[in-house]
Specification:
Blueprint: H1 14-18, H2 33-43, H3 47-54, H4 58-69, E1 78-81, H5 87-95, E2 102-106, H6 109-125, E3 137-139, E4 152-158, H7 167-177, E5 178-189, H8 195-217, H9 223-232, H10 238-246, E6 250-257, E7 262-268, H11 273-290
Parallel strand pairs: 1-2, 1-4, 2-3, 4-5
Antiparallel strand pairs: 5-7, 6-7
Helix pairs in contact: 4-5, 8-9
Bound molecules: S-adenosylmethionine.
């Protein structure tokens, strides 16, 4: 098993500092780290209940599909960033081999505390007998992560990329810490394309969800008004797949779930064994043609 290096003194580099400006796709919406962190701090105690209730539990199925999309091989570690209360990290760790170290990271202390309690309960329930590693939940900004380049076989994010102040910086960081040949996976809300469904969805998102959300979460900054706004302004489908290609990922594909309410995007970091094999085969073919 290999464990990645964590540099606790890691400071955002110049481009990450620069990137605290919102990306063009989110202009007009305050996604500053302070605002987003404070919003999640306020809703943390009720985040899980709200999530399952407002999505009618479909969010659990979406995360399961995301885990099934991963091609976990060998014992290289896996990173789930913007992990919040830890559901995706825990689902990945349960599905991966006992030798695979999964790490969760997020910049909201209150969300991580809940993830840690869940993970401690799981360890207690199995009396440490599941054989798998305990997940460390680390406090880190996804725009400047304290991990070396090429550290993880898979880097995932569920419903988090949309909240990062600069989408491209978040994607670049994901690609940076991913191993060559590894997978970068994004699970994110998207806009349904069927006109009738789109209208119903927009009505639910704009009028029903914020009221229930605000009432239940007693959140004075209105996180559940932020949700439809941030989804409406966030790229989806081909647009987000293009942004993943722009940071250097290859073979990017996406799969809409539940009529497009959410989408799984997956891309590969170039330089893996298959690339080398393909390049060798290509060189061989060229050599044959030349002779
Ligand atoms: C909607 S929650 C998603 C949580 C979890 N991944 C899930 O599937 O439920 C978004 C999370 O992203 C985190 N987040 C947003 N921007 C971040 C950043 N720049 N760095 C680290 N975490 C961030 C928030 O603190 C929050 O926990």
């Amino acid at each position: 098993m290999s464990v990645p290096n964590v540099d606790p003194s890691h400071q955002p580099n110049a481009s990450a500092k620069e990137a605290t400006r919102p990306s063009p796709a989110t202009e007009g919406l305050d996604k500053s780290g302070e605002r987003v962190r404070e919003m999640f701090r306020q809703i943390a105690p009720r985040y899980d209940v709200m999530n399952h209730l407002l999505s009618l539990n479909i969010d659990k199925w979406w995360r399961r599909k995301a885990v099934q999309t991963l091609k976990i091989q060998g014992d290289d570690p896996i990173l789930d960033l913007c992990c919040g209360t830890g559901d995706l990290a825990i689902a990945i760790a349960d599905a991966a081999g006992a030798d695979v170290q999964v790490i969760g990271s997020d910049f909201c202390h209150a969300m991580l505390e809940i993830a840690r309690v869940k993970e401690a309960k799981r360890t207690r329930d199995t009396a440490g007998g599941s054989g798998r590693h305990t997940i460390p939940f680390l406090e880190a900004d996804s725009m400047a992560m304290p991990f070396d380049d090429d550290s993880f076989q898979c880097v995932t994010v569920a419903f988090g990329l949309r909240n990062i102040a600069n989408t491209d910086q978040g994607l670049s960081e994901m690609a940076r810490v991913c191993k060559p040949g590894g997978q970068v996976l994004v699970l994110e809300f998207s806009q349904p394309t069927l006109p009738v469904l789109k209208q119903a969805y927009n009505f639910y998102f704009r009028h029903v969800l914020p009221r229930i959300g605000q009432w239940m979460a007693r959140n004075d900054k209105s996180a559940y008004e932020y949700l439809p706004e941030s989804v409406g302004k966030f790229p989806c489908g081909d647009a987000l797949a293009g942004r993943m290609r722009d940071v250097g990922l290859q073979h990017v594909t996406f799969r809409p779930l539940t009529l497009g309410v959410a989408t799984i995007y997956v891309g590969e970091k170039p330089g893996g064994k298959t690339d080398h094999a393909e390049m060798a085969a290509h060189r061989e073919r060229e050599a044959l043609v030349a002779t």
